[in-house]
Write a structure and sequence with these properties.
Length: 258
């Protein structure tokens, strides 16, 4: 019987090797395309949720953009970090700074009228002579902040923390301080006419010579803590103190409340 000889038999090994190499190249190409696609999607998502960069307090372009857009939330900013920023005298009225980190920032004589600062961190910030007319500072952190002579007319400070803050000669007419922590705060010569201080904590605060005419403490179920507070020389005309805790407080005439 004759033997069939395959003329390409001696090339069979080479064909198999070449085929495997071609298959590897194709698989590698597909893998690279998939990786590139994943990277593109990641970049798009990063831009959408702001994972790229934080707002940089030291970058002048960041400050300029903030002034132009009136918003510290951007697709290019991871979060609003303006810690230690020098914003003195700037017009930031109507600006969205909610949740911003403004710790130790210099906002002296700046305009923050109608600004949204809810949940912002303003600890140890300088807000001396700053205009905060009707600003939203709900749940903001303002402990040890300097608010000397600042204008806080009709501002919303609900549940904000102002412990150890300096509010000397500050104007708080019509301000909402419901549940606000003002313990150890300095309110000397401050104006609090018509202010809502229900549930507020003013323990050990200094209200000497403050004008608290018509201060809202009313409603027997909502207590305000003024224990050990200094009210010497304060104007309490028209103030209802029935639900106020005054233990150890220095009263306007200098006497200590038992």
């Amino acid at each position: 019987m004759g033997v069939f000889l395959d003329p390409f038999n001696h090339l069979g090994g080479n064909f198999e090797i070449n085929y495997n190499l071609l298959q590897c190249h194709q698989d590698l190409g597909y893998a690279m395309k998939e990786i590139a696609f994943v990277i593109k999607i990641g970049l798009i998502l990063s831009l959408m949720v702001g994972w790229i960069l934080p707002a940089d307090a030291t970058n002048l372009k960041t400050i300029q953009q903030l002034l132009e857009t009136k918003d510290c939330h951007s697709s290019l900013w991871k979060y609003c970090n303006l810690e230690g920023a020098n914003l003195q005298g700037l017009d930031l009225s109507n600006t969205n700074l909610s949740g911003a980190n403004l710790k130790q920032a210099n906002l002296r004589e700046a305009s923050l009228k109608y600004a949204n600062l809810s949940g912002a961190d303003l600890r140890q910030a300088n807000l001396e002579n700053t205009n905060l007319l009707r600003a939203n500072l709900n749940k903001a952190k303002l402990s040890e902040a300097n608010l000397t002579q600042s204008s806080l007319l009709e501002v919303n400070l609900t549940l904000a923390n102002l412990s150890y803050a300096n509010l000397e000669k500050a104007k708080l007419l019509g301000a909402r301080l419901w549940g606000t922590n003002l313990s150890q705060a300095n309110l000397t010569n401050a104006s609090l006419r018509g202010t809502n201080l229900q549930y507020a904590n003013l323990e050990n605060s200094n209200l000497s010579f403050a004008d608290v005419n018509s201060l809202l403490f009313r409603d027997a179920t909502q207590f305000t803590d003024l224990s050990n507070a200094n009210l010497q020389g304060a104007n309490l005309e028209g103030v209802h103190l029935e639900t106020v805790i005054l233990q150890g407080a220095v009263m306007p005439d200098g006497s200590i409340h038992e």
